[in-house]
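ok so I'm stuck.
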Amino acid sequence: AETAPASDFELGAEDIEEIEQLLAQRQKKIDNAQ
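replied:
not stuck anymore, here's the structure
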């Protein structure tokens, strides 16, 4: 199987910010649960 070009996996800045926000929210939930 050929590896897909890197461009297929590139994320826009907005996508990265959204993912970081989701991760931060999840981390807060984890911290609050402990």
